[in-house]
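User: Fold this; tokens only.

Assistant: Input:
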Amino acid sequence: MSKLLARLAIVISAFIAWAVPTTAFAQETGDPVTGQPTDGAIGFQPSVTTIMDSTAAFHNGLLMPIITVITIFVTALLIWVMVRYNSKANPTPARFTHNTLIEIVWTVVPILILIVIAIPSFGVLTDQMTTPDGERKYLGSSIFSRENGEQVPAAEITVTATGYQWYWGYEYNDLDGASFDSIMLSDEEIAATKPGQPRLLAVDNELVVPVNTTVRVLVTAADVIHAFAVPAFGVKTDAVPGRINETWFNARKEGLYYGQCSELCGKDHAFMPLAVRVVSKEEYAAWAEKLKAEDDVEAANMTLASLN
């Protein structure tokens, strides 16, 4: 009996450890900060794009209920088997090894579950991979009906993001190829130049884009495989040497949004963050004009009110 109780305790503990984090579907511990991880929080960062809306709706509205039901069902089966068929309760085990009905059920039901998951996932994935043309509707939080989707404007800005060991370089294709590098700041540099920004995520030069504007991002790498990923935008694309991949986003809220290279790219993999500063269209116009005229990102950054 003591062994049985110990096994039950292990199963129940494992279930509680799984169930507690899944009760929250967004970073809502205290006051979550948009665009960066929050201490003690669980779930996704707050969404600021149509793409992330659909990803969150797919995860919270479909995947979580399905996996919750499966986990509870399997846990109940384990407990039932341990109680009903232990050696003391069932000293003479049955000798049969197959049950045709059960084998059909445990083959067909998972297939049906995968089909239910696959249908909306194809739509979410297609939205992520299709750069807006100004006419196509996107699912957004309505992952089962494109009729209620959102119309996203065509891309107005194209940026080439290149991964290096271990930092990012940005080239603005629409600004005569003006470019700059984005390198992580040390703790001392953060304290001196950008106090309050998160360590291991703050950079010297952020990728600057305007709010409510579709930005097309061409992603590549100069040395090894990297990955361009910004959680609040719902974008994640491999940066492969000799190849150009494409992603896009349209941020509806001004602010500073962080990401990281999410590919194991070498010894300093953990130290090549992404930082995207979303500003007003007026601020961006002044910043872009300065960058295009002088090709000097430090001079352009001086035009941003949020940095002064």
